[in-house]
């Protein structure tokens, strides 16, 4: 839990954060409090998860209960694609800060590399044929430029900016016009989808990679993988702890759990041997799988599991 990664802003980001996607209001508060009491110093949320207000409240209370200060905790949130028009980016940031109510945000990310039409007034606007109502007036570069401005104008309330779910071609495009290099690219990453090429690319550009769904998301087949199971038995750990130990050696990780025992267990990790790491590195070749793949109607994902 003490491991940190340095961002290109100079800030230190705790390498293990609590993921809160699908952690519903009503259960997320207890999970955040358990995590902070257990030593987690990084909490990840998003406007799109619909739980920022509760996450923020839990953080404020947990800081007070554990004798901690605001600066002791790193909080990441994400701007939803209906706020991607340049004139709406600032509103997206302000809504999140308002809901979280925690003085400032350590890191805010553009949640997806695609904008959604804000005019329907819903989170996922759809066209009559059922496909997503993409906002064709924006590109990742346009929105990024607007976010840079928000960052510049709110240095006391926003400490770093980054992206999420951005593949290499879109990052290349974005970097052509970027004045600020994204501090982070948060993507789905686990042994069945190790994203080695993207990781290497981001490292070469000084963009830190954070793994979401590091356990392979809900009902994960990854946790019943035979090789992972064997390594777990050998160390007297759970498959989840082995998968997370592998993840922590490559990037920061955001395991999600609303169960107190699992929240604690997910931060009790080990060093794997080179041979074990290699065995896990091989798994994607036979079991390549992306668990989170909403249909954007435009190309977002690489289909290789390299
Ligand atoms: P729960 O919240 O009930 O613990 P990911 O982080 O890859 O998105 O995975 C989250 C999923 O894995 C959730 O369904 C979560 O359920 C479950 N999970 C979290 N920690 C563990 C663990 N240590 N062992 C098994 N399942 C876990």
UniProtKB/TrEMBL annotation:
InterPro entries: AKR, Aldo/ket_reductase_CS, NAD(P)_OxRdtase_dom_sf, NADP_OxRdtase_dom
Keyword match Oxidoreductase: yes
Residue ranges of domain NADP-dependent oxidoreductase in the record: 16-283
Any GO molecular function: oxidoreductase activity, acting on the CH-OH group of donors, NAD or NADP as acceptor
Keywords linked to the UniProt accession: Oxidoreductase
Site (Lowers pKa of active site Tyr): 78
Record keyword Transit peptide present: no
Entry annotation: catalytic residues: 49
Residues noted as binding substrate in the record, renumbered to the chain: 111
Signal peptide: none
Coiled coil: none
Protein name (database record): NADP-dependent oxidoreductase domain-containing protein
Species annotation: Circinella minor
Lineage: Eukaryota, Fungi, Fungi incertae sedis, Mucoromycota, Mucoromycotina
């Amino acid at each position: 839990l003490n491991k940190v990664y340095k961002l290109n802003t100079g800030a230190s980001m705790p390498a293990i954060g609590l993921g809160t996607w699908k952690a519903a209001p009503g259960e997320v508060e207890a999970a955040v409090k358990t995590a902070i009491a257990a030593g987690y110093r990084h909490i990840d949320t998003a406007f799109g998860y619909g739980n920022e207000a509760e996450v923020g409240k839990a953080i404020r209370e947990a800081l007070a209960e554990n004798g901690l200060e605001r600066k002791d905790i790193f909080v990441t949130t994400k701007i939803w694609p209906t706020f991607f028009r340049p004139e709406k980016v600032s509103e997206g940031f302000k809504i999140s800060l308002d809901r979280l109510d925690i003085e400032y945000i350590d890191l805010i990310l553009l949640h997806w590399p695609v904008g959604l039409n804000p005019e329907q007034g819903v989170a996922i606007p759809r066209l009559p044929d059922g496909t997503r109502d993409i906002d064709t007036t924006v590109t990742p570069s346009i929105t990024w430029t607007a976010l840079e401005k928000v960052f510049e104008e709110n240095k006391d309330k926003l400490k770093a900016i980054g992206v999420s779910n951005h593949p290499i071609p879109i990052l290349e495009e974005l970097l052509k016009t970027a004045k600020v290099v994204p501090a982070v690219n948060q993507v789905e990453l686990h042994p069945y989808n190790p994203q080695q090429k993207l990781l290497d690319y981001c490292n070469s550009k000084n963009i830190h990679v954070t793994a979401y769904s590091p356990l392979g998301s809900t009902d994960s087949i990854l946790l019943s993988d035979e090789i992972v199971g064997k390594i777990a038995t050998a160390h007297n750990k759970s498959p989840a702890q082995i998968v997370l130990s592998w993840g922590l050696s490559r990037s920061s990780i955001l395991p999600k759990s609303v169960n107190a025992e699992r929240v604690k267990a997910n931060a009790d990790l080990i060093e794997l041997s080179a041979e074990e790491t290699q065995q896990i590195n091989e798994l994607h070749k036979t079991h390549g799988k992306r668990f989170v793949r909403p249909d954007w109607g435009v190309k977002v994902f690489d289909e290789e599991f390299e």
